Predict the structure.
Amino acid sequence: MEMIKDVLIGLWESSGFYALFADGTFLWQNLVMILVSFVLLYFAIAKKCEPLLLVPIAFGILLANLPGAGLMDDPTGLMDTSNIVDGAHWYDSGVLRLIYAGVKSSIFPCLIFLGIGCMTDFGPLLSNPVSLLLGAAAQLGIYVAFVVAILVGFDPKEAASIAIIGGADGPTAIFLTGKLAGHLLGPIAVAAYSYMALIPFIQPPIMKLLTTEKERKVEMKQLRKVSKVEKIIFPVVVLVICAFILPDVAPLLGFLMLGNLFKECGVVDRLSDTAQNALMNIVTIMLGLTVGATTNGQTFLEVKTLLIVALGLFAFAFSTTGGLLLGKLLYLITGGKVNPLIGAAGVSAVPMAARVAQNEGRKYNPANFLLMHAMGPNVAGVIGSAVAAGFLLAMFG
Amino acid sequence: MLFTSDYSIKMPIGEALLRSVLGIVTVISILAVIALLILLVSKVIRVIEAKAGNKPVEAETAAPSATPAGVPMPAGMNQGELELVDTDEKTAAVIMAIVSDKSGIPLNRLSFKSIKLMEDKK
């Protein structure tokens, strides 16, 4: 009888219900985060909002907030030295903590960039190199948000990590935040991916506000066909230039351009296929799960998180504005040959931002076909946000 | 690290502004350099290809569009190459007209590379 009682007490004390009230403190934050994960799962599954990312992220949130489960435990201080347990080994760490090493070490963002490189066609950019300037201008929000983040009281490393949300590039945001302000990785990653999913709602009002109907109706000249040699040379040249000027950008751009070379050289189709399909899917699962797992209730539910979300939206809006303003300038300089809407696509989120430019253009001129023109600034934005991250890393890393 | 400041403390707003301006100028400069290099490299490649006896540069740079025989080519439309596999020209013309109609994109802005009859898999 005594044994049964001991077993039952043991079971109770090892249960999540007991852990919820451990040390006399009710861990309500974990329960709130579990509810948040349910809401995100609903949006991902029922509403199909970025399900490939949102399902693993939401499930990571759920797993990390299960009381007593310890999936993100770090007894050896692999990344957090505040809870070191004497005699613990690295393999005693929570399983998600071990996988999270891929985020902390930048392995996952770089591998994602490898896959993106394999899927990216730089042809529209090569046929219209001015696109690169639009991609650069659309990084404006990063630097405006940086100043505002400093103003509201974040330290420079945190401010730089928050500001990079304006680049609208998930892997870049994770890469930079992992290096500068790992404790903010959860809210920054969630904000970055959320805004990327919300591009069709965020950008159109700004486009309407900053452009005239006449500008939105502009039809652009057909792009020239780019030769295979140009496409093969491009990734190598870009990497060498950028990495020589800003060596910190080499990991991200290196993998992006390697992936693109896989695609364009035409002699490693198997590698290209693996990088953009199997590998990309595997890394997405691990990245999504572990990014979600960084949102522990005790540290996530703070005023700071709300500020980060607000600043991220601010950064994103200003990046769109920067691209549109340069687009308007090009419209004036070229005598109306450039549709300013394609500037908004410089915010990197490929190909969503280009699609928004296409859709907005066709609303005002059904015969307009801006997609390929917008793809130029769009892929330039990927390079631009990586360069911006490299700059911030060089400053504060 | 470029500077030796302690970044765990707050930064004066003037310095933040200065670094922001420096940041956007750096990004624009690097991407502008890349743009110039693209222009340069593409020109060199096109000259080399032209010298090697390839197709004239202008012909290659035109976006490929296609129209089968018998279909009147709209004004401004570019002649390109279209591969027809087990498809007659009449069917190809109908397919292209339907794609143009459904997508709302004029034929002279569409580029077809090949039209192939798919096997009926049961």
